[in-house]
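Friendly challenge for the regulars: who can give me the structure tokens for this chain first? No prize, just bragging rights.
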Amino acid sequence: MTFRTETLDVALIEGYRRVLNFLELTKPRVVLMVLVTTFVGFYLGSESMSGYLHLIETLIGTALAAGGTLTLNQFMERDADALMVRTRKRPLPDGRIQPIEALFFGILVTAAGLLVLGFTVNTLSAMVTAFITVSYLFVYTPLKQKSSLCGVVGAVPGALPPVIGWTAARGEFGLEAWVLFAILFLWQIPHTLAIARLYRDDFAKAGIQFLPVIQRDEGSTGRQIIMHSLALLVVSLLPTLLGLAGSIYFLVALSLGAGFLACGVSLAISQSLATARRLLFASLIYLPVLLVVMALDRVPL
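First reply, four minutes later:
Bragging rights claimed.
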């Protein structure tokens, strides 16, 4: 009896670890950010928040599609991940999950998310999500090994989750949805460049061609950060000008944008790891605060 109990306990523990390993493949923290931006797009695009079931269906479909896409991305980049200190302990390079398992799991979860969106929400939101999956996996991922333009290209699928939410709520695109897209797109460039600066040597080992890796003088990196941060400051004010958010949001966006730009200028001037870390921290504060205030100060459509 004791032997059987111990065997069962070991099996349960191993099963639990397997589940956690597959969950890790989906990058839950990234999926959470995707869901936050999707929710904001849905909330801002809704005439009322009475359709809670519709929102839940949207978030479930988006979470599945995002988690599956991120799993497939790790499947495609498993060899590069094995070369970098920051990623070599992921389930695939560490050998905890076999590549064929990750491939089938990623395909299954992604397909499930697209089906949920297509059959329970609407076709347009499923099409936007499918475009994110295809562009992320088959354009951005291989481009990382070939050109520094990968950062700009990768910002496109990364900026589309609020458009999923908007189209799920309204069944159509709108200028407001593209403003939300532009905010996330412009935010991602300084955010990604700060990460690339911090882990430049690691990315170089894996042959990933982020701008700080291939142009180590960092002049181009600094200019890109300042240019996109300045554009972000301007574009982030548009929700108020378009009647999507109120004056409180305008003041918060102006203050956040100015602080974010200041961090970008600081990195461009000093080009140090400390300023890169500060910019990364600022980017992680900037986006959720901006989106929360935008939602709280929403002007009803």
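The first helix runs from residue 2 to 25. The chain has two domains: 1-173, 175-301. Your move, everyone else.
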